[in-house]
Structure formats: structure tokens, C-alpha cells
């Protein structure tokens, strides 16, 4: 990994020099746009609307337009801002871990200690861990002042940028003003259904199904050309029956619980422990035959659980 930023964590008179690394990366298949008629690459150009010329990136600056006037902001102007020049991750307070709303989390970064600051780094990490607290910090990165959460993950300090409070939308939906009556029986069935899908979260057992299928399609086209048979590649899914059938909530819960129990029972009889949710379909290697055989029996709740958390 390559450091994207260097600075220092500061609180009181304590200074902990660190290097900042992106903790995540994109795994999507890289795609670009082409002309469907001849395959020619489609490229975007930065063209000036006044002289019609294509402008190189080094001659492009930022501007603000209030409707009547335009203010030009050069790279030198942006770099002159005091917060942009700061190389400090300034701790403003230490808060209990459970006070942070996951909705505020944005991007994550690993912090590597400078070789001369290992003890101070370890001390901060140990204190956060023992006190079960998260450091709320302010810092500047990529021409933005940012709010962040500094916490412990294993033996490394992780810096997570936070959204500002006015960037979180309110969940103002009229339907939420209503309070439907929920019977004890409905609650019992819902709890039983939830229990049938209960388990410990293991991120490695889930995979990005769309990207897996996209890679498989690309491989098939590379091998067979444009005449690739997608039905043969992925298998034909059976038409789902009863799509327009309206089922009473109680009946839907009862059927779901019975189907889950039946599925677990058949798994036990075969001598194998039946995995909950979509464990089998979310494994790392996906074959065309397994997609075909499970397409019509995949459960809706399991599909939901395999999605990445927002």
C-alpha cells in the first residue's frame, strides 16, 4: 500500500506522527464505454465553451458562480487556506463507542505509526481499547475539512471520516406516523422466522454475485465471441409461480417458518448441517449449474442478508 497522506494525531501536548492509507478498494470489473457500431472508444474531453478548444488539466481551475458573478479560485488560492495547510489530526473529544451512529460513517483509513512514535501510538491504541472510547477528530484532507472517528481495529488505529450532521437526511415519511397493531402470534412467528436465519456474521462467506456473473459473461464472450449463449452460460431460471398472489401476513409468516423448519430437517437427515440464509450460494466459486439449480428456491430474506451493509 502507498500512503496517501502524512500527519500527526494530536491531543493535549501529545503528538503521534502517522501515515494514512486507504483501508478499502474497489473490486468491480473495470469497464469503459465504446461505440456500439464499431467498438470505438468513447472519451470525454474538457472543452472550453468560449473558444471551443480542448483544455489540458493543468490549465483548469475551480470557480464559483452566484448567478451574476464568477469567482476564479486557482490552485494557489485553495492551498492558501489555513485548514488545507494543516497536517494534524486533532482530537477534540473521546466518546463512548456506542454513541456513534453508523449512518455517519463514510470512508475508512488505516493509520501506520511513524517508526519514532511507536510507543505513543501503542499507548493511544491501548487507552482507547481499555476505556471503550472513540476519539472524535478534525483534520483536512483533499481540500476538505473533515470530521472523523479514530478507533481501534485489531492492532491498528482506524480513521473513519464522518458525515457532517447537516448531511444526514431526516427520515420524514408519513407512513411512519401510523402504528399498526401487531398481535402476539404475529410477533412469535416473526421471532421464530428470524431465529431460523440466526447466525454469526462472517463477511468472507459472502461475495458480489453481480461481479462474479459479469466476469463469467466476459470470459464466455472471450472464448465464444459475440454469439455467446447466455442461457447456456448461466442456466435458465424457472418461471416463478404465484407472482400475483396476495398472501396474508400471518399466512406468509407461518409458511416461511414451516419451510425453514422443513429445510433444516431435511439437511439434518442427510447428515449435513444445513447452512442458514444464502451460505451455499454466497461461496467464493459459483458454477453455472449451481446458479441454475438454486435460482427458483432462493429465499427473499436470505437475498437481503447478502447485501453489503450501507
Explained architecture:
With 310 residues, the chain is α+β, with helices and mostly antiparallel strands. It has helices at 75-79, 82-85, 118-131, 184-196, 209-224, 230-234, 249-269, 288-294, 300-305; strands at 5-11, 14-22, 62-65, 70-73, 88-96, 105-113, 133-140, 145-153, 156-162. The strands form two sheets. Strands 1-2-6-9-8-7-5 form a seven-stranded mixed β-barrel. The chain has a two-stranded antiparallel ribbon with strand order 3-4. Helix 4 (184-196) runs parallel beside helix 7. Residues 272-310 have low confidence and may be disordered.
Which keywords apply here?
two-stranded antiparallel sheet, 29% helix, 310 residues, 9 strands, 9 helices, disordered C terminus, seven-stranded mixed beta barrel, alpha+beta
Say how many strands there are: 9
Major sheet strand order: 1-2-6-9-8-7-5
Looking at how many chains there are and whether they match, the oligomeric state comes to single chain
Which percent range fits the helix content? 25-40%
- Please report which band the strand proportion falls in: under 5%, 5-15%, 15-25%, 25-35%, 35-45% or over 45%: 15-25%
Order of helices and strands: EEEEHHEEHEEEHHHHHH
Q: Give the biggest beta sheet.
A: 7 strands, mixed, barrel
Euclidean distance between termini CA atoms: 25 Å
Topology:
Layout: E1 5-11, E2 14-22, E3 62-65, E4 70-73, H1 75-79, H2 82-85, E5 88-96, E6 105-113, H3 118-131, E7 133-140, E8 145-153, E9 156-162, H4 184-196, H5 209-224, H6 230-234, H7 249-269, H8 288-294, H9 300-305
Parallel strand pairs: 1-5
Antiparallel strand pairs: 1-2, 2-6, 3-4, 5-7, 6-9, 7-8, 8-9
Helix pairs in contact: 4-7
